[in-house]
Design goal:
The protein is of the alpha/beta class. It is 42% helix and 16% strand. The mean pLDDT is 92.
Length: 377
């Protein structure tokens, strides 16, 4: 008998949790072992159609506000009864709450929460999110297991009052056949952006969100521009485009006109990472940041703030600095950009080896599969 797992996720856009779910299902064993189903509380996003191409059943609730009306939930009870899952695994806070409610009402045998962050500054988010976080801490003893993707995330939620029956730490995994070095990528990007051959490229892939701290990114970029004026800054992510008034003001304030390239949401990120001389992350809070692992798998040395398990991922292949410290971050950028090219290439080679040896998607999928099958037994 195959194991039926229903994944309930807040959105299927291009975030880290969504990417991990997609990778998990892409590399999961055949349906004779595990059958996967997906419910998105919002729309199909980026990954919904891709999952459909893989014949993974996907249902989108298209909820436009939270908490949802009871009718929005009840109309899906019949679907859950039809799929008859052995396990509900939820992804992100809103889905944790909804999954717990519908899982209990439809008597699904096992319910797992999946937490993907740490050190969230809840003051930066809507009151509804703060309310859900508080409620979940009080209900954390109900699900059978709470999965976290980082030790930092586990510590943070214990401090916030989470007291589950069982914790399980399962880090993110990376497709190292998709994310890989490309010696021609830097040349192609410079040609596409009209950059000089001597230009140095600092890249960051992160949606526009308070926790990503783009303010510190641009403060740092302004300082580095004064020391290394041939440096260019390439940013990718949701709402990272010319329509973002806040970003345009930060660019102007830091004297970076003509030095910053806002590429918005991209579906070809694996081919862009290898074009960076260094990759950076300026986040205030993370769990297990996908972008760091993806860049490392592409052979790019990384400089990151000390958030979540970022320092554990990077280890000795990059540089870790405190968050909100533009002076420390700018010094790290200058130090690494000033290295001879051969030394940066060697750092990138070691970075990729660390991902391949420790965080390949096949290893992580095996751990998820083992956990799910043990629940069935």
């Amino acid at each position: 008998m195959s194991l039926r797992v229903l994944h309930i996720i807040t959105t299927l856009s291009t975030g880290g949790a969504e990417s991990m779910l997609y990778n998990l299902l892409t590399h999961s064993p055949n349906k004779s072992i595990i059958e996967n189903y997906v419910i998105s509380l919002s729309g199909p996003g980026h990954y919904g159609p891709l999952l459909g191409e893989m014949d993974v059943p996907v249902r989108c609730l298209n909820l436009d506000k939270f908490p949802p009306k009871p009718s929005d939930l009840f109309r899906n009870f019949a679907l859950i009864k039809k799929w008859n899952p052995h396990v509900i695994q939820t992804w992100l806070y809103h889905a944790d709450l909804i999954g717990l409610i519908v899982g209990r009402l439809t008597r699904v045998p096992k319910i797992l929460w999946n937490i993907r962050c740490s050190n969230m500054d809840l003051k930066q988010y809507a009151p509804t999110t703060r309310w859900i976080f508080s409620l979940l801490s009080k209900l954390s003893h109900v699900p059978d297991i709470i999965i976290v993707n980082s030790e930092a995330g586990k510590r943070h939620h214990i401090q916030a009052g989470y007291a589950p029956k069982r914790w399980e730490v399962l880090p993110n995994g990376f497709d190292t056949n998709l994310y890989k070095p490309d010696n021609n990528a830097r040349k192609k990007m410079k040609q596409a952006l009209g950059l000089d051959k001597t230009s140095l490229i600092v890249g960051m892939v992160a949606r526009y969100d308070p926790m990503k701290d783009h303010k510190t990114f641009f403060n740092t970029a302004g300082r580095v521009n004064a020391v290394l004026p041939n440096t260019r800054f390439v940013l990718i992510g949701k709402d990272i485009d010319e329509n973002n008034i806040d970003i345009k003001e930060m660019i102007k304030k830091n004297g970076l006109e003509g030095k910053v390239y806002l590429l918005g949401n991209r579906t070809d990120v694996p081919s862009i990472y290898p074009a960076f001389d260094i990759f950076t992350l300026t986040s205030l809070g993370e769990g297990f940041p996908n972008a760091i692992g993806e860049a490392m798998a592409c052979g790019v040395p990384c400089i990151t703030t000390d958030v979540g398990d970022a320092a554990f991922i990077v280890e000795d292949t990059g540089i870790v600095v405190p968050s909100r410290k533009a002076d420390a971050l700018s010094q790290a950028w200058v130090d690494m950009l000033s290295l001879p090219l051969k030394q940066r290439i060697e750092l990138g080679r070691r970075a990729r080896k660390r991902i391949v040896d420790n965080f390949s998607i096949s290893r992580i999928v095996q751990r998820y599969q083992t956990l799910h099958l043990k629940l069935l037994n």
